[in-house]
Structure formats: structure tokens, C-alpha cells
Design goal:
CATH architecture of the domain at 16-104 and 179-281: 3-Layer(aba) Sandwich
Number of helices: 12
Shape: globular
Bound molecules: adenosine-5'-triphosphate, iron/sulfur cluster, magnesium ion
Order of helices and strands: EEEHEEEHEHHHHEHEHEEHHHHEE
CATH class of the domain at 16-104 and 179-281: Alpha Beta
Strand order of the largest sheet: 7-8-9-3-10-11-13-12
Radius of gyration: 20 Å
Helix content: 25-40%
Number of strands: 13
Length: about 325
């Protein structure tokens, strides 16, 4: 995808499909601007599945919607760079971004009901999402391929006439299969589904990756699923990406106290399907703290943690944002 915007100097395709540097998003609130995402940087290799975990409100969905440039109009977006397949998306005009959405980057939204209009027939909305190049026959074919052949004859109905699971699978089929984008952003794509359909959806995403070599950012609260399907995992807290590591390293030797607490609070029998709820206290208010956002809940916190934002540092293959990283 090399259209509009700033081009990469090197012509050879890089191993990295996506390189995000210094991403920030702030929402206006009655208490002043809320920095929901702060200085987030990461890379995603071609064909890689990156998991994104973190408590509710830590900024996961905001990162995905910022990458798609689909934030609410009032939100303030800043980024040093968002390189995607040779183009810096942080500089392309909205017109070019419209060609990227759906075609090169597909988003599976967190809440299918709220991302669809209740007053427009489903078929019309799916046609809009897939673009005019996708015929009705192709749309029916896509849905049939994900086991939704039964709803094809009802597509002229309204979203409320379908179950949440059917809508979620429909949006996944559209985001993933209509244009087979190089990057799929999947925001808790299986949370509303029963276990059998969850497995189908995960297989669909992974089959696509295996067939086309595309990359996936997979947001989930389900650490069991994360450990099974992700190559690397990023942990978010208070708007920051506090640890990124290969999956095996993250589960075997987490470096950040928040990651450690998260894993320690997950007895294996209860991992699947649980919302993340690890440690005493809440993430609320952490976005505006001057130092480390985790300091009020961290057993290791010192004075420097409360005044200085920890910068990312490398420990083996792990990147961690903590003044005192290491084994618990
Ligand atoms: N439109 C908005 N206006 C104001 N604040 C917002 C808006 N959207 C999100 N926020 C705030 O930004 C922060 C990050 O929200 P976000 O939805 O990205 O979190 P999340 O990690 O995806 O949470 P969840 O796991 O519940 O989906 C939260 O504090 C949230 O309240
Ligand atoms: S920087 Fe300090 S407060 Fe933050 S996680 Fe590390 S030790 Fe804890
Ligand atoms: Mg979310």
C-alpha cells in the first residue's frame, strides 16, 4: 500500500508491516483533557499476531481506533510516526485514509451493535463496509463461508433482528474476508460468542494469517486465548504500553509488576472468559499521574516512580516501562 503521504526511503519491503512511534490520544472531559493513550510505540512484523491486554479503560480500543483514524471528532491525536507498509499514516489526508480502511486495514469493532445503525437494513450497511466492489453474491458467499449461510436470506432485515453472535461473526467476515487486508485489528472479537463459535472465529483469523501472511492485533481479556494464538503480547496500563514481549517470555518471565500481578491473579481454571481484574485498587485516575501510572498500586513503588515517567528499556526480547523491572 503506497498511496499518498510520505514514502519510505528504502524500496525493499520491510519485515515490519507496522511501526508506531509516540502515539498519543487525548479526550476532552469535564475534568480537563484525558490522555487515554500516552507515548505508545511498537512494531508489528508481517504475518505476526500481537495480543493486546490490559484492564478496562487502559486504552486498547483507543489505540486501534487511532490507527484507523476513526476517533471521535473531539479527540486529539498525535504521533511521531505510524508507518504502515511504506506509508506514514499519521500524515495522509482523510481522502487517502478512506482507501486504507477496509481495503488494507480491517477493523473488527468491540461492540457490533453500537457500530451498526439500527435503522438501516443490514445488507446496505455491509455493502457500505465492504465497498461497492463487493457484489451481493460475493457477500452471501462470505457469510456462508463463516457458517452464516442461514442468515443470507434475511439480510434485508435490521440489526436488532439478529443475535449479537451473528452480527459479530458477520462483521468479522466482512472485515477479514471482503478485501483480505494486510492488517486486521480485532477488538475483543470473541467476547460475546459462545465457546464453539469463539473457536470458529479464531480459526478463521488464523487461517487467513496462514494463507495470506497478514498481521493481526488481537485485543482480548482472555489470557488463555492470548497465549494460544499470539506471537507477542503487549500489556497496557493507564494509557501506556508497559510491557511487550514474545508470548512465551511474557508468561514465563514477566518483567513489569503489573504484568506479574495480572498473571498471578489468574488461576488456570478461571483464565478463560474472565474480564481482567487483578489487583486491589483501580486504573481510574492513573492516566493523569505525573510519574508511573501504576505507582499507587505497585508494591515496588519508590519516590522516583511517583515523579518520573519510566522510559521503555530492553531486557532480552522484552521491552518494559518500569524503573525497577525484573522478577517478582
Ligand atoms: N469518546 C470518549 N470520550 C472521553 N473519554 C473516552 C472516550 N472513549 C474512551 N474514553 C476513555 O479513554 C480511556 C481508554 O478507553 P478505551 O475504550 O480505549 O479502553 P479499553 O482498554 O479499550 O477498555 P475496555 O477493556 O473496557 O474495552 C478510558 O478512561 C475511557 O473512559
Ligand atoms: S515504575 Fe515503579 S511504580 Fe511503576 S511499575 Fe515500576 S516499580 Fe512499580
Ligand atoms: Mg475496548
Amino acid at each position: 500500500m503506497r498511496e499518498g503521504g510520505q514514502e519510505a526511503a528504502d524500496a525493499a519491503p520491510s519485515e515490519d508491516l507496522l511501526r508506531v512511534e509516540g502515539l498519543g490520544v487525548s479526550y476532552p472531559t469535564r475534568q480537563g483533557p484525558l490522555p487515554a493513550v500516552r507515548d505508545v510505540s511498537f512494531t508489528l512484523r508481517r504475518g505476526e499476531v500481537l495480543g493486546l491486554v490490559g484492564e478496562s479503560g487502559s486504552g486498547k480500543s483507543t489505540v486501534l481506533t487511532a490507527l484507523m483514524r476513526m476517533l471521535p471528532r473531539t479527540a486529539q491525536l498525535s504521533a511521531d510516526q505510524v508507518w504502515f507498509d511504506g506509508t506514514d499514516l499519521s500524515h495522509v489526508p482523510e481522502r487517502a485514509m478512506r482507501r486504507v480502511r477496509g481495503r488494507h486495514i480491517g477493523l473488527v469493532p468491540q461492540r457490533p451493535m453500537t457500530s451498526l445503525s439500527p435503522v438501516t437494513p443490514l445488507r446496505t450497511q455491509l455493502r457500505r463496509l465492504t465497498g461497492e466492489s463487493v457484489s451481493d453474491e460475493r457477500l452471501d458467499e462470505l457469510l456462508t463461508s463463516v457458517g452464516l449461510g442461514g442468515i443470507v436470506s434475511r439480510l434485508d432485515g435490521y440489526p436488532f433482528q439478529f443475535s449479537g453472535g451473528q452480527l459479530q461473526r458477520t462483521l468479522i467476515a466482512v472485515a477479514v474476508l471482503a478485501h483480505e487486508p494486510q492488517l486486521v485489528l480485532a477488538d475483543e472479537p470473541t467476547t460475546t460468542l459462545d465457546v464453539t463459535v469463539q473457536a470458529q472465529v479464531l480459526r478463521l483469523l488464523l487461517d487467513l494469517r496462514n494463507r495470506l501472511g497478514n498481521s493481526i492485533i488481537f485485543v482480548s481479556h482472555d489470557l488463555a486465548v492470548i497465549s494460544q494464538i499470539c506471537d507477542r503480547v503487549g500489556v497496557m496500563y493507564g494509557g501506556q504500553l508497559v510491557e511487550v514481549a514474545p508470548t512465551a517470555d511474557l508468561f514465563a518471565a514477566p518483567q513489569h509488576p503489573y504484568t506479574q500481578a495480572l498473571l498471578a491473579a489468574m488461576p488456570a481454571a478461571h483464565v478463560r472468559g474472565e474480564r481482567l481484574r487483578a489487583i486491589e485498587g483501580t486504573v481510574s485516575g492513573s492516566h493523569r499521574l505525573p510519574g508511573c501510572p501504576f505507582a499507587p498500586r505497585c508494591p515496588r513503588a519508590t519516590d522516583v516512580c511517583r515523579t518520573e515517567v519510566p522510559q521503555p528499556q530492553q531486557i532480552g526480547a522484552t521491552t518494559v516501562r518500569c524503573h525497577l523491572p525484573g522478577a517478582a
